[in-house]
Specification:
single chain, mainly alpha, 2 domains
């Protein structure tokens, strides 16, 4: 009876209008603080509630025209408010767009999408509030940075969808769609670090620089800081950045494994976490000893990770390693796979790791050899970079970096023994 009473008196709709009012007030509070905005707290609240009311009228009359008329009326109101503006500065269209969007949010609340409306309102408010930070970020992006984003879009949304998703070749291992999906995955992870590195620069210290450099290319980061380690004032800084950059490879492997083969995570996480925790302990020790007045931090010389040439090269490498891994596993068992992991891991961890994960998902590898192959590839790559930094940076850098690299290896071996 009570529910019937509410419906008959229209009180059952109060929650929808209350949600609409809250959404408008949320956005309006932010706009009230902007001196350039001609709409504030009350206007946004009223427009949002108006959207809900017009949606209700459209539904009750079974006609879209009340809602359409409301959109036109709000648009005309906005035009009228700004037509007589004689100020020289361009006020922009952000507030106007936010008003129209607020009307739309009020409408979808009536149609039962309150949670979505609240999420969009929060997102819109964040975008409005962080205008200075977003403008600074876009100004820091160069033409090359924007080009890298466009290239990633080409890799992901033009090339990937047109590739056939079926197996070809020996052992049915070569799948063009899956191969390119691996390219997109690695390029996306690298692009995230690349853009963040370009935006952050050297402002936030060695740990973050090591993290972002490792996310893009631990080899490039190791090489750059090995060169700078010849300056005595920067040797501890180089140890910190190099150690963190190579620890981030473990994070990359964890992320890639969770995407490509979630079923393997319980098996591979102890190995990755063991190496990461011990290595982080040593990195923290050197960070405490580091001279924080070393001056401006050198930036790693990292190329665009989404260039078509680089993407195709990685795709070919991945396909070759995948085929070789399937063949060696067939004729020589796990021992053949381990030899391939040691050899290919010297220059690239991603290809053999993705190949092993793919074979595991196809049921052609068990969990144990898959995890061991990935761990061997990583340690092989770590040994290669240790030799490189010793040759470039000298004996002192090698002596200081060795405990961190050794700790990572010990942690991973302990994880393998537990596995």
């Amino acid at each position: 009876m009570y529910e019937i009473f509410l419906q008959e008196n229209g009180l059952g709709y109060v929650s929808a209008f209350a949600t609409s009012l809250a959404v408008g007030l949320l956005v309006g509070v932010e706009r009230e603080r902007s001196p350039a905005a001609k709409a504030g707290l009350r206007t946004f609240a009223l427009v949002s509630v108006l959207g809900t009311l017009l949606a209700m009228l459209s539904e009750k009359t079974d006609s879209p025209w009340p809602l359409v008329a409301g959109i036109v009326a709000v648009g005309a109101m906005i035009i009228g408010a700004y037509m007589g503006d004689e100020q020289d500065e361009d006020p922009g269209t952000t507030t106007q767009a936010a008003l129209i969007l607020c009307l739309g949010l009020g409408a979808i609340i009536w149609y039962g999408y309150s949670t979505l409306a609240i999420m969009l309102a929060i997102t819109m408010t964040i975008l409005l509030h962080y205008k200075p930070e977003l403008q600074t970020m876009t100004r820091n992006l160069t033409r090359a940075d924007l080009q890298s984003m466009l290239q990633f879009a080409v890799l992901s949304f033009i090339i990937l969808p047109i590739l056939p998703d079926r197996e070809f070749g020996p052992y049915d291992t070569l799948n063009p769609y899956q191969t390119w999906w691996m390219v997109v995955l690695i390029s996306g992870v690298s692009l995230t670090g690349y853009v963040a590195l370009r935006l952050v620069g050297e402002r936030y210290g060695a740990p973050l620089l090591g993290f972002l450099g490792g996310l893009v290319s631990s080899t490039a980061t190791t090489m750059v800081y090995a060169r700078h380690a010849k300056e005595r004032a920067m040797i501890n800084l180089a140890v910190v950045v190099i150690t963190i950059a190579n620890l981030v490879v473990l994070v990359r492997l964890g992320v890639v494994s969770s995407v490509v083969s979630p079923r393997l995570l319980p098996h591979i996480l102890p190995v990755l976490v063991g190496g990461f925790l011990l290595g982080t302990t040593v990195a923290f020790y050197w960070w405490r000893r580091m001279n924080r007045s070393a001056g401006e931090l050198p930036m790693p010389e990292i190329k665009n990770p989404t260039e078509i040439k680089a993407a195709v090269s990685f795709g070919l490498l991945y396909a070759v390693v995948l085929l070789a891994a399937a063949w060696l596993s067939d004729i020589a068992g796990s021992q053949g796979l381990y030899l391939l992991a040691l050899a290919s891991g010297l220059t690239d961890v991603d290809a053999i790791s993705l190949s092993s994960l793919r074979l595991y998902e196809q049921g052609k590898l068990a969990a144990e050899p898959t995890v061991r192959a990935i761990a061997l590839a990583y340690m092989s790559n770590l040994a290669f970079k240790f030799g490189m930094l010793a040759a470039i940076g000298g004996r002192d850098l090698a002596r200081r970096t060795a405990p961190g690299i050794g700790a990572v290896a010990v942690g991973m071996i302990a994880g393998l023994l537990l596995f």
